[in-house]
Amino acid sequence: MEELDWQILEDLKQTHNLSKTAMNLMLSQPAISKRVQQIEARFNCSLGVRTKKGLVLSPEGTVLCDWAERLIKATMAAEYDVARARTDKTGVLRIGASNTFTKYLLPDILVAFKKLYPNIEVKVVTAWSRDLVHMLERKEIWMAFIRGEYSSIGERDELFEETMFAAACEYFEYEDLPKMQQVAYRNDEMLEFKLNHWWFNNYRERPNIGMSVLNVDACRVMVQKGLGYSFLSELIIKQECPELFRRPLLLEDGKELTRKTYIQYDTDLKENNIFDVFIQFVKNWDFKSSVKL
Question: How many C-beta atoms surround the C-beta of residue 89 within 10 A?
Fold first, then answer.
């Protein structure tokens, strides 16, 4: 049994669905099915019955999934304790990052970091910022790139600040927005609160939602196709759609509505060599060239 097999079992306990587990672990459906068959052959049992509603775990499958959860937690606890004890520049780092940070910034950071420290293994979890904070609390990850003002667990350092814009294909004035169709998307709840506060400070009517999509990538494409306007961050506009006409969201005092990104970390590991090396590396990274318009 490899670590991936235990991860599959742990995820199946939550999803009861092979397709969802494949998506969560970024594997193909055939690859997941083959692994499940190998696990069933290894323990000479069936994990469960596949129905229209998903996988109904068998008693044996439930036992294996429970063991998977315990073994993964034990492995992470062991890695955590080893990291605290380590004095050289080798080992494992468990980090988390928001979806947008992972897509636009994290790959370049990790490539540059691995060139300098090839013996440090970095394990990455991608999730919503609010979920990353909870994962830090449970020590499932040891540091995280978090977008927004969430409660501080351990310590955090600000990495950059970006402006929020109303953006569309064509020219518009602020007073045009209530009449225009908005492309809405699922947002981080902290940012959603800020945007709603800004809107109702400026307009009496509710926004005219023309369509709602699952994520900011789909939203951005819809805006680029001229199907409405949306609220996009400076990072996304810089990376994906600098051609859009945009206006910054202005607060009552005339300042721009902004969103900060932090690196937040477990203070118990602060004196660890590889932990400190990564923190300092990130704090010295040139985010301005990637983020600022």
Answer: 13
